[in-house]
Write a structure and sequence with these properties.
heterodimer; A: 12 helices; 42% helix; B: alpha/beta; eight-stranded parallel beta sheet; two-stranded antiparallel ribbon; Aldolase_TIM (chain B)
């Protein structure tokens, strides 16, 4: 076979398919210690282990939220944390039909000789790490590659390096029982129009799928986490229907039907924008052989974080807020979302940070 | 919707497919020789007239691929073939490659030529009524084949041809044929097919080809010609899976070549694919040459008095394949003379 079919093949296919269940999506709660620190400082909360544990417990135990989710991406620390009752988070999620995932990349480093382009590191001993994560209960992984649009970017070097890095990561995951989420994020930063974003996204995705094929990755046991196709952050916004059309067209031109699901990143979009765009894609009358769902971090947690503010007495309110976003996005995967359901102003706030580094 | 997209979509209409009648003068000579017919222009014309005027055939077809000579020929009534086809709802297509040449330093691998002046030629063909084109790249399976070099050369040749066609109004049929010759099993064929198709779509992306305005003409995934045969359902499963792993949904239709399969085999395999319950965002149809014409040729044998019977034989195969694109073929076509006969010729050269 062109694709590597190892001992985990059946499980990988089953897990990937489950994660792509219509009506469900992924909560990206894998902020590294450094990144969660930035979130916390935004709400005046101290970045200590107990607060990080409290936030994740708040999210995972939100009444009614887990049925909207098929997976949660965790940071390594969280994989080994427990609820205040002493139950491992991983078990809690599994018991509620949510598959634990793990961020495995080690961040980006600059590519010398380029104009600020990067590659992602994390391949060293990745196989051994994946084995440990599998033992701890993880069944999927995530690795974020980052590309940018500029006068001469993304360069061929950047595209090749990032695509190959993703492919190598992906096959190592599959060898060790983890479904790899392939994430080639093209940043929104810039003043380019939506057509430029579409062209770059298509070029990048084409290179990614060639690399995956070269590395014998079993596509049926993967997921794709791409950016939506939008105008640059410095350009005029367009309607969700326009974003939907360009995004789905780009995916139709590059993503083979063997891929079971596409789980969008939200980038700097506000909670409401991200939901509306996802909804528009699922309403689009174009043939889509993969499910289109979410893998949102900021776009699921923003208003929840604000409502919580680090205070125990706000937990119930924060959890109710979280449920609203989960339900909204669950509806969006079915094309059934009705705008403004949440009514919360925080939901419309842009989450764009220029040159965002995790 | 540009005309390229509309034409490509039309060719993929369920219930229809392509008749590959683009045999070069040399190749048609071999066919005619096998039925003792002289390879002269009038006979070549007579054969194509027989095919294009066969009652009931054109409704089963969305396109016919022609050789350059045929593009300018007329029926005995004096009507241009391209007009007969157009009036019958069939798009005329044109073979534009100039055959294969060996790749030095390889073990008999080839690349396809025909890029020189291709743009100009496409313009002329468009003026003559052609609306799609075909270019055949050939790869083989062996110990060390296909080599990375051969895959790359053929994929990028196809991509360059494709974008030149699109610049000139012709929908390019992208044909990366992996020959069936060999003793390999179906898994090997699947692996090679997936690798080749992945390379093709990377090349097409690099060359900015509009996928919605293209068609793919691949081999089916089968065991090698020297290996044991397998059931149509097995061929269907491996073929569709290979396509799911490599062909983006933007491609409107996949029109299979028949290679050395017999008429009946090719139809049954296509039928099994269309019955398969799995994701198929492109329609699956045919672009058959030998697998549509074999029994017709034998029945005709170059004789005027056999034309009617020969045309019926063609209709039988057209109808069977039309049903196969819908997964409704019941295997009950009246088998013509030689319909079950393998058409495999080792190391076949067109």
């Amino acid at each position: 076979m062109s694709a590597f079919v190892g001992k985990y093949a059946d499980e990988l296919i089953k897990t990937a398919k489950y994660i792509a269940t219509p009506g469900k999506g992924i909560l990206a709660a894998d902020e590294s210690t450094g990144t969660i620190g930035k979130r916390f400082s935004g709400i005046n909360v101290e970045n200590i282990e107990s607060n990080r544990q409290a936030l994740r417990e708040l999210l995972f135990t939100s009444p009614g939220a887990l049925p909207c989710l098929s997976g949660v991406i965790l940071f390594e620390e969280t994989l080994y944390q427990k609820t205040s009752d002493g139950k491992p988070f991983v078990e809690f999620l599994q018991e509620n039909g949510v598959i634990p995932g793990i961020k495995v990349d080690k961040g980006v480093v600059d590519l010398a000789g380029t104009n600020g382009e990067t590659t992602t590191q994390g391949l060293d001993s990745l196989g051994a790490r994946c084995q440990e994560y599998y033992k701890a209960g993880a069944r999927f992984a995530k690795w974020r590659a980052v590309l940018k649009i500029g006068a001469t970017e993304p360069s061929e070097l950047s595209i090749q390096e990032n695509a190959k890095g993703l492919a190598r990561y992906a096959i190592i995951c599959q060898e060790n029982g983890l479904v790899p989420i392939v994430e080639p994020e093209v940043l929104t930063d810039g003043s380019h129009d939506i057509k430029k974003c579409a062209a770059v996204t298509e070029t990048v995705l084409s290179a990614v799928y060639k690399a995956l094929n070269d590395h014998h990755v079993l596509l049926e046991g993967t997921l794709l986490k791409p950016n939506m196709v939008t105008p640059g952050s410095d350009s005029a916004k367009v309607a969700p229907e326009v974003i939907a059309e360009y995004t789905v067209t780009a995916l139709r031109r590059t993503v083979p039907p063997a891929v079971p699901g596409i789980v969008f990143l939200s980038g700097g979009q506000s909670e409401e924008e991200a939901t509306l765009n996802l909804n528009a894609m699922n309403k689009l009358d174009l043939l889509k052989p993969w499910t289109l769902t979410f893998s949102f971090g900021r776009a699921l947690q923003q208003s929840t974080l604000k409502a919580w503010g680090g205070k125990k007495e706000n937990v119930a309110k924060a959890q109710a807020t979280f449920l609203v976003r989960c339900k909204a996005n669950s509806d969006a995967t079915l094309g059934k979302y009705i705008a403004g359901a949440s009514g919360d102003s925080a939901a419309s706030e842009s989450l764009f940070v220029k040159g965002y580094s995790y | 919707m540009t005309p390229l997209i509309a034409n490509a979509a039309y060719i993929g209409t369920p219930g229809k497919g392509i008749l590959a009648a683009d045999e070069s003068t040399g190749t048609i000579g071999k066919r005619l020789a096998s039925i003792n017919v002289e390879n002269v222009e009038t006979n070549r014309r007579a054969l194509r007239e027989l095919l294009f005027t066969a009652p009931g055939a054109l409704p089963c077809l969305s396109g016919v691929i022609l050789f350059e000579e045929t593009l300018y020929q007329k029926s005995s009534d004096g009507k241009l073939f391209v007009d007969i086809l157009k009036e019958g709802g069939v798009l005329p297509g044109i073979k534009v490659d100039k055959g294969t040449v060996e790749l030095a330093g390889t073990n008999g691998e080839t690349t396809t030529q025909g890029l020189d002046g291709l743009g100009e030629r496409c313009k002329k063909y468009y003026e003559a009524g052609a609306r799609f084109a075909k270019w055949r790249a050939v790869l083989k399976i062996g110990e060390n084949e296909p080599s990375e070099h051969s895959i790359h050369e053929n994929a990028y040749g196809l991509a360059r041809y494709a974008v030149i066609c699109q610049e000139n109004g012709l929908v390019p049929i992208v044909e990366p044929e992996i020959l069936v010759d060999g003793s390999h099993d179906i898994h090997k064929c699947a692996a090679v097919t997936e690798r080749v198709l992945a390379a093709c779509y990377k090349a097409l992306s690099d060359h900015h080809v509009l996928l919605e305005g293209t068609l793919l003409k691949p081999n089916m995934v089968t065991p090698g010609s020297d290996s044991a045969k397998v059931a149509p359902e097995v061929i269907a499963e491996h073929t569709v899976r290979a396509l799911q792993r490599t062909v983006p949904p933007a491609v409107p239709a996949i029109v299979f070549l028949s290679g050395g399969q017999s008429e009946e085999e090719a139809t049954k395999n296509l039928n099994a694919m269309n019955q398969l319950k799995t994701k198929k965002p492109w329609s699956l149809s045919f672009s058959f040459g030998r697998a549509l014409q074999q029994s017709t040729l034998k029945t005709w044998a170059g004789k005027e008095e056999n034309v009617k019977a020969a045309q019926e034989a063609l209709y039988v195969r057209c109808k069977a394949n039309s049903e196969a694109t819908l997964g409704t073929y019941k295997g009950d076509a009246k088998l013509g003379d030689g319909a079950a006969e393998s058409l495999h010729v080792k190391d076949y050269k067109y």
